[in-house]
């Protein structure tokens, strides 16, 4: 059999592999890069939409707390009938005529020791905490998109290498059969080559299955089918040392900032519960029409009242509320310490992972080079009878393992780089400079923080915002 030169063989395998990839089912013609995956995930994530809605709910808690400081006006209708039993001389009892009242009532809190103000401040701290939680969710969504993209890329490269190995195994089988026909090898050598080809075909089928699985995860994470991948992404700017990474994480990580705001919110709740032990003063007023049912007479009625309430005994509920709020605050403080430790460990793990992957990639690249040289040499020697078929197949497997290790190390390095960004709190759409409409958490808050009434212009602006959110 005429021998192929090394250059012709490599060229033929490359063309075959390219055709194999281009004929994979369900592969769109466009090209996707990591930035496309980030944009798709940011724009289509249901998890982000869910937590944005939770943030808007927290914004409304500020408006609800503010409303407690404002007067409450109601329209009231009251029908009453009084029965009076008296003993006076020969009279035993009497029935007062039924009365009807309709009008407006007003209640205004004048003083409660600052409890309502503290409740509003606590709600504001909760809003700030929830904003940071939303940013942490954003990091998770974007890192999942990065993982999905790199997984698709890894499996595509794996399919290509497996396809090349199938082609090479088929070439080796043909060479073994030709050499068997002229008596250079035994039937055992042919059987070894057949086994190697069957194993390569099985591995290729597994790799294609893994690629389909990776594509399904990409659809879930990014919101669309992957196009033709544009290759490994360039690495982001990373800190020069683990101490620098830790310093950035302690200042920027949303989990830490969220826990800090939560501690402050619960501190204010403790103060609020203590203020509830004091007196509160409220103003009451009403104005309307009062009429007796026994005649057609009516009278305009108005009244003003001032009331003071001071808790004396409530069955232990008030003291229990204070102790409960203190315990909850103490738990949040402990949680802050745990979060800080977890973030520090996460930075260390990600930094070490990146350094390890970088070193592994260098070693894997050298391994591929050496394995390629060894395989080419052993294959040439086998054509001269100096090597057995088993030697060639062993060298082929070593080369395959080296190539798979190299692409795995390259993918691992990219993943570690973006994990390090996430560990520092820097994996956000704004910091990545993505071409998306960045969600502004202050827009909705600024519309509701003053608790606008339903008939105000600000309320109509809110209606338009909510309508736009529902449409999206």
Give a description of the structure:
It is a single chain. This protein has 472 residues and is α+β, with helices and mostly antiparallel strands. It folds into two domains: 346 residues, Outer membrane efflux proteins (OEP), CATH 1.20.1600.10; 72 residues, Outer membrane efflux proteins (OEP) (Single Sheet). Helix content is 67%, strand content 13%. The chain is built from twelve helices and eight strands. Helix 4 runs antiparallel to helix 5. The longest helix has 67 residues. The radius of gyration is 37 Å and the shape is elongated.
List the helices and strands and how they pair.
Layout: H1 6-22, E1 31-32, H2 34-44, H3 46-67, E2 72-80, E3 83-88, E4 91-95, E5 99-111, H4 115-181, H5 187-222, E6 228-229, H6 242-252, H7 254-275, E7 280-292, E8 298-309, H8 317-383, H9 389-424, H10 429-432, H11 441-448, H12 457-471
Parallel strand pairs: 1-6
Antiparallel strand pairs: 2-5, 3-4, 5-7, 7-8
Helix pairs in contact: 1-4, 2-4, 3-4, 3-11, 4-5, 4-7, 4-9, 6-8, 7-8, 8-9
The CATH architecture of the largest domain can be given as Up-down Bundle
Oligomer: single chain
CATH level 1 name of the largest domain: Mainly Alpha
Distance between the termini: 65 Å
- Please tally the helical runs, counting DSSP H or I stretches of 4 or more residues: 12
- Tell me the count of domains: 2
Largest sheet: 4 strands, antiparallel
């Amino acid at each position: 059999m005429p021998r192929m030169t090394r250059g012709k063989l490599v060229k033929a395998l490359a063309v075959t592999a390219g055709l194999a990839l281009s004929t994979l089912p369900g592969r769109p013609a466009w090209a996707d890069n990591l930035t496309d995956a980030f944009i798709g995930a940011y724009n289509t994530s249901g998890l982000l939409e869910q937590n944005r809605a939770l943030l808007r709910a927290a914004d409304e808690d500020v408006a609800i707390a503010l409303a407690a400081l404002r007067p409450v006006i109601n329209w009231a209708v009251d029908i009453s009938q009084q029965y009076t039993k008296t003993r006076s001389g020969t009279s035993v009892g009497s029935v007062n005529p039924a009365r009807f009242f309709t009008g407006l009532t007003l209640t205004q809190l004048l003083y409660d020791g600052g409890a309502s103000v503290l409740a509003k401040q606590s709600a504001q701290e909760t809003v700030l905490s929830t904003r940071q939680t939303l940013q942490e969710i954003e990091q998770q969504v974007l890192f999942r998109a990065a993982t999905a993209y790199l997984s698709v890329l890894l499996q595509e490269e794996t399919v290509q290498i497996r396809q090349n190995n199938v082609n090479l195994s088929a070439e080796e089988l043909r060479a073994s059969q030709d050499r068997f026909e002229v008596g250079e090898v035994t039937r055992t050598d042919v059987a070894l080559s057949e086994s190697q080809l069957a194993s390569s075909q099985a591995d290729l089928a597994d790799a294609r299955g893994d690629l389909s699985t990776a594509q399904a995860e990409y659809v879930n994470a990014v919101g669309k089918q992957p196009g033709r991948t544009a290759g490994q992404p360039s690495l982001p700017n990373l800190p020069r040392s683990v101490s620098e990474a830790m310093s950035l994480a302690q200042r920027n990580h949303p989990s830490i900032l969220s826990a800090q705001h939560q501690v402050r919110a619960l501190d204010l709740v403790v103060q609020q519960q203590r203020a509830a032990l004091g007196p509160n003063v409220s103003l009451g007023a009403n104005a309307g029409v009062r009429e007796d049912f026994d005649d057609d007479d009516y009278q305009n009625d108005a009244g003003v009242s001032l009331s003071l309430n001071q808790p004396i005994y409530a069955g232990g509920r008030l003291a229990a509320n204070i102790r409960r709020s203190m315990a909850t605050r103490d738990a949040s403080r402990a949680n802050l310490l745990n979060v800080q430790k977890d973030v520090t460990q996460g930075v260390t793990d990600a930094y070490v992972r990146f350094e390890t992957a970088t070193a592994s990639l260098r070693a894997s690249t050298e391994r591929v080079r050496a394995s390629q040289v060894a395989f080419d040499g052993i294959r040439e020697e086998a054509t001269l009878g100096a090597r057995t078929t088993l030697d060639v197949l062993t060298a082929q497997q070593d080369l395959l393992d080296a190539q798979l290790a190299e692409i795995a190390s390259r993918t691992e390095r990219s993943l570690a780089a973006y994990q390090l960004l996430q560990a520092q709190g820097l994996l956000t759409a704004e910091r990545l400079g993505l071409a998306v409409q960045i969600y502004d958490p202050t827009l909705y808050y600024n519309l509701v923080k003053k608790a606008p009434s339903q008939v105000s212009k600000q309320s109509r602006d809110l209606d338009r915002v909510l309508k736009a959110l529902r449409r999206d």
